[in-house]
Structure formats: C-alpha cells, structure tokens
C-alpha cells in the first residue's frame, strides 16, 4: 500500500559515498576577510576607485617632488620671466605661452627675450617664480597641514569618545555637555583666537582645525562604543579579566576602524578647506611658505590679467576635495555590511 | 517643551560666559600693543590712553566689567575707529551679512529641494547622474573658489553682473550663488535620498492605487514627508554659511561683519574681535536652538527630551 502511494521503490535510491556528500556541502568561494570584502565593494564604485588613484597620484607628486619643488627652488625669482602664461613642449592649443595684447596673440616667451627651450607648464607669477613648482610645494604644505590636523583630531576624538562611551554615567554626562559647548563655538572663532596667540604656521593651523573637528569623531566613537560594550565578546573579555585599556585597544578600536577611516576621509578635506580659507584671508601659512590657499590668494589679486594664476590652484584644490569626498562616500558604502551584494 | 527650551537657553548663557572669558584672557595674552606707535608715546601719554580705555585697572576688575557689559551687548569702544562703540559698528554692518546669509540659504534650500526631487523622480536617468555630479561639486568645491571663478567668468568675461560692491540687488546675486551652492548641494542630495525611500513606501503605493496623478503623489505625499528631516540640516548649514560668508564678504567687498572681523584681526582691534566673536557665537547657538525647536514642532514623532 505504502509503495503504491508514494511511487517510490528501493531501487530508486542510490548510496552516496561519504566524500561526495562532503563536497556538496563545501563552500567553494574563498572566504573573504572584512578588509578584502570592503575592497571588493570599493572596486565596484567607479567614482571612488578613480578618486583613490587620483589621490595616490597627488600624494606621490606632492611628496616625491621635494628635491624639485622645495622652499629653495620655489622662491627663485626672475624678473625676466614675470607673469608668463603656461607653456609646454609641443604645439598644444592653450599651452603655447601666448598672451593677447590689443586683440593680437603674441608669444609672451619670445617677447620676454627667452630662449626657445624655456617651459613653464603652469606659467609663472608676478615675481617670475615657476607656478608648477609652487603648486607642487603648496599642495604638499596643504596636505601636511591636513594630515597633522587629522592625526590630532584622531587622538583627541578617539580618546574622548572611548572614555565617554565606556565609563558611562556621570562621566559621560559631563563629557557630553563639554561636547555640546565646544560644538556651539563657531570654528572660525577658535582658529582666529588660536592663530592670534600662537605664531601663524603649519602646526598652529593644524591644531586649530583639530580643536574644532574632534567633536564629530568623539560623537561617532562614543556611539560605537556604546553599542559594542553590550556585546558578548566584550563581556567575555571582561570575565577573562582583561583590563579596560586592553579591551579598548584590542577589541573596541579594531571594531571601530571602519567608522574612524570613513570619518577621516571627511576630516582631511575639511582641514584642507579651512587651511585654504585661512591662508586665503591672509591669516594662514606665513609668506615664505606657500599653500594652495596662499596661491589662490596671490592669483585672486591678478586674476583680471593673468587668470591662469587663479584657475590652476583652484582646480588642484577642487580636484583634491572632490576626490576625498567621493572616496569617503565610497568607503562608507563599502564598509557598511547592509549594502553588501 | 518649555522646560527643554529653558534648559537649552541655560546652556547657551553658560557657553557665552565661557566664550567671553576665553576671548578676554586670550586677548590679554596676545602679543602686540593696541596703541599705534606705542614706542613714540611717552609713559604719561600711554598711561592716559590706558586709563581712557580702562586698561589700567587690575585684570580681574577688567574681566568682571567686560563680562557684565558683554552680557548687555556692550563691548566697549573700538581701538581703531576712535570713540566708536563696538556694538554700533556691529549693528551698522550686520544688515548686509544677514541679507546675504538669508538669501543664500533660501536660494540654496529651495533650488536644492527642486533639483533633489527632480533627481528622485527621474531616478537612474541622465538627469539624475548630472544632478548627482552637481551635488558632489557643490559639496566639495570651496565657496571662495566658486566666488573667484564666478567673478572672473560672469563678472569680468561676460560682464553680466557687477564684480564687487554692495549697491543694490544685482550686486547680491554672485555672492548669493557662491554662498548658496553648498546648501543647494547638501539639500538636493538629502532630498533625493529621502524621496527615493518615501517613494517606495506603502502609503505612496496606496496613493497610486487610489488613482492619484503622478504630480499629486510627488508634491502632496512624497515631497512633504521628505521635507521634515531637512530642517535638521538647516542648523549645520547656517554654521557653514557664517564661516563662508566671512571670506565671501572679503572677495566681493561687502560691508558686512565678516569683512570687519578680518580687518579687526589684521589691525589688532581687540574690542571688535571680541565683540564679533561673541555675536557670532550667539547667532550660531540661537539658530541651532530654533532649528531643534522647529523640528520638534513640525514632526509629532519627535519628542524633545526634557
């Protein structure tokens, strides 16, 4: 009866050897670590990937050009070569070193009586300094300021956020009030006050930027600590007798790395922005040095006659800012397991 | 709600006292004398001038006087403009700054809402891509770079609008665009994300099932619900705007408090620096409080914690 109802007979079944059962269950895609997984997702985001490579190139150019573009070579002045437009070898339109005088195009290089093999890819400024070298140097200074600021921001923000989140209770309450107060002081005010009492320079600007931007980092870190602290692995570590310091360094910090990296990708461009803003207003990097902001400031003064002196630093600054923002967005999506596909 | 507002006001006053104290003592630490050509004045003359500005009293007395006066919006008299009270100087110049700030945020937010909604409705089309590129540009490119480029191309090359100055509405257009581009980009991006989410929700499905037209769904249902969280962004936007406006005012030579602030720093005019700092902080905190309260009022789902 039972055989008729199901239509199944003993002959219909096969013995499956043990090893075949194993292979059927096997996961044959390679196990990806968190980092590999994030990288795989980042690679799918074209904008972020392009930005990543652009930033690598910008960093390489800025930091490998030290022998070529340093304070010594960038401050080399030459009265014969004032305000020359960009010129490159080869007959590229717009890069022939031509200026328009009375509606006529003339070769500014020949006009200045220069030999044929003198080239300035970005032109020169009012003192005859090569703008290409100055932009390379200025980019390096801007990036250095931003990186120092990011480092200080990282240290203050993470320490503050971790202590606040981990301790909880009254400590947390007081620390949160401090954050509220600090964040309601306009950041420009902090910069200005700091720059007034300290000597203007790379470090004071970086410190000013860090002192105003650590609040966001501290908030994010605190939120992460608050949620992580309730999880079992932390209780386990506690039960096993780990000290708070050990748990913080060995367990919490690695678990928050994605939040921190993403936040850094937004801190760095905002530091670059503020440095440029301060230098642009004449409150930033002091004169013998140059940054993208001071280059913009110089360019602004003569933009009616020599627009390239304004436009070139403006483009470099904008490209760096856009690349950081796109990479930051891409990393945020890549690190977020919810966007996993 | 009342309790919440009172608590926030308390924090504001406390923060203000802190800022006033910090600026006061930092200014005292600062190098450089406020007296021009101090080395040419005799000791008696210097003392006379110091007595005139109350700089001869003990530090704590100076501090207490300053604190009490500052809370009454009296910041003393300017060093640079003889006998001019700082509060008058600020009051004279706050008009253009406020006008520029309000114009920029209104232009930015309204244009941003329009563009964000357009991008959400035409999701994954060329319009959407173009608008998202515009948003990235608007968020990344600093306002003073935009300002300089606008000045060059629209002011100088095309000669459509005045390059700088403050003599009528035409003069406000370029600075407004330069300053409003970031709020525009931020709100466009925000509205797009919100709208995309709202458009996929059940009540939009229901509205469609009822047979409402597309424009009715977009305007009456989707956009309205996307707008509420935008209020929270207005506060941070206003903060950025204040920072940005300082340099924008300089670029376009607008007689606002931002350009005055920069001038006072360059000329060591301490009372003006301190006064402007305090006024900026006050405005910032009030704006943040207002946005929080407005958010609580328009979204019944949010209960402000007492």
The helix content of chain B is over 70%
Unreliable parts of chain A = none
Number of domains of chain B: 2
Task: Write down the CATH class of the largest domain in chain B.
Answer: Mainly Alpha
The averaged pLDDT of chain A comes out at: 80
**Strand residue percentage of chain B:** under 5%
> What is the CATH topology of the largest domain in chain B?
MetI-like fold
CATH top level class name of the domain at 49-68 and 138-339 in chain A: Mainly Alpha
Look up the CATH topology of the domain at 49-68 and 138-339 in chain A.
Answer: MetI-like fold
Name the CATH superfamily assignment of the domain at 49-68 and 138-339 in chain A.
Answer: MetI-like
Shape by Cα distribution of chain A: flat
Q: Given the C-alpha coordinates, what overall shape of chain B results?
A: elongated
Order of helices and strands of chain A: HHHHHEEHHHHHHHHH
The helix-and-strand class of chain B reads mainly alpha
Membrane topology (chain A): Multi-pass membrane protein
Domain ABC transmembrane type-1 (chain A): 139-328
Keywords (chain A): Cell membrane, Membrane, Peptide transport, Protein transport, Transmembrane, Transmembrane helix, Transport
Protein name (chain A): Oligopeptide abc superfamily atp binding cassette transporter, membrane protein
């Amino acid at each position: 009866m039972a055989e008729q109802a199901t239509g199944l007979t003993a002959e219909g079944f096969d013995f499956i050897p043990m090893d075949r059962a194993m292979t059927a269950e096997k996961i044959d895609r390679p196990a990806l670590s968190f980092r590999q997984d994030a990288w795989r997702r980042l690679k799918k985001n074209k904008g972020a990937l392009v930005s990543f490579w652009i930033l690598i190139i910008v960093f390489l150019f800025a930091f490998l050009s030290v022998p070529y573009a340093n304070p010594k070579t960038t401050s080399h002045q030459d009265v014969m070569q004032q305000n020359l437009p960009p010129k490159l070898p080869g007959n590229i339109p717009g890069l022939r070193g031509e200026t328009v005088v009375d509606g006529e195009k003339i070769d500014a290089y020949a006009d200045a009586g220069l030999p044929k093999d003198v080239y300035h890819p970005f032109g020169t400024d009012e003192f005859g300094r090569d703008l290409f070298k100055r932009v390379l140097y200025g980019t390096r200074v801007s990036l250095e300021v931003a990186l120092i600021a990011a480092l200080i921001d990282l240290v203050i923000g993470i320490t503050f956020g971790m202590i606040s989140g981990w301790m909880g209770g009254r400590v947390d309450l007081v620390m949160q009030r401090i954050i509220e107060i600090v964040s309601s002081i306009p950041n420009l005010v902090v910069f200005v006050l700091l720059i007034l009492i300290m000597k203007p320079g790379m470090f004071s600007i970086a410190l000013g930027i860090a002192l105003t931007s650590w609040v966001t980092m501290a908030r994010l870190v605190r939120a992460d600590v608050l949620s992580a602290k309730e999880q079992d692995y932390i209780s386990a570590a506690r039960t096993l007798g780990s000290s708070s310091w050990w748990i913080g360094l060995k367990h919490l910090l690695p678990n928050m790395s994605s939040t921190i990296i993403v936040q850094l990708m937004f801190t760095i461009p905002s530091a670059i922005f503020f440095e440029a803003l301060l230098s642009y207003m004449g409150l930033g990097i002091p004169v013998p040095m140059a940054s993208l902001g001071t280059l913009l400031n110089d360019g602004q003064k003569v933009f009616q006659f020599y627009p390239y002196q304004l436009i070139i630093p403006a483009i470099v600054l904008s490209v760096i800012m856009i690349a950081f923002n796109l990479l930051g967005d891409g990393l945020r999506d890549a690190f977020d397991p919810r966007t996993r596909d | 709600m009342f309790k919440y507002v009172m608590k926030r006001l308390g924090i504001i006053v406390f923060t203000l006292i802190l800022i006033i104290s910090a600026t006061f003592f930092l200014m005292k630490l600062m190098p450089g004398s406020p007296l021009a050509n101090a080395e040419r004045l005799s000791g008696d003359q210097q003392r006379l001038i110091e007595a005139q500005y109350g700089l001869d009293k003990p530090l704590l007395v100076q501090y207490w006087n300053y604190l009490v006066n500052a809370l009454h919006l009296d910041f003393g008299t300017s060093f640079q403009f003889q006998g001019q009270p700082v509060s008058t100087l600020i009051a004279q110049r706050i008009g253009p700054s406020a006008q520029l700030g309000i114009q920029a945020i209104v232009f930015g937010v309204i244009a941003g809402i329009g563009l964000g909604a357009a991008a959400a409705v035409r999701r994954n089309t060329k319009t959407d891509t173009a608008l998202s590129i515009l948003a990235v540009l608007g968020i990344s490119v600093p306002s003073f770079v935009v300002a300089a480029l606008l000045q060059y191309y629209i002011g100088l090359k095309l000669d459509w609008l005045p390059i700088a100055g403050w003599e009528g509405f035409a003069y406000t257009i370029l600075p407004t665009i330069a300053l409003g581009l970031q709020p525009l980009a931020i709100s466009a991006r925000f509205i797009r994300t919100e709208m995309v989410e709202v458009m996929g929700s059940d009540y939009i499905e229901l509205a469609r099932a009822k047979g409402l037209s597309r424009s009715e769904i977009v305007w009456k249902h989707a956009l309205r619900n996307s707008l509420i969280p935008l209020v929270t962004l207005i506060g941070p936007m206003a903060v950025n705007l204040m920072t940005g406006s300082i340099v924008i005012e300089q670029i376009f030579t607008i007689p606002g408090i931002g350009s005055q602030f920069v001038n006072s720093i360059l000329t060591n005019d301490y009372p003006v620096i301190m006064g402007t700092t305090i006024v900026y902080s006050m405005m910032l905190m009030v704006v943040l409080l207002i946005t929080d309260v407005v958010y609580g009022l328009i979204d019944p789902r949010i209960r402000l914690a007492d």
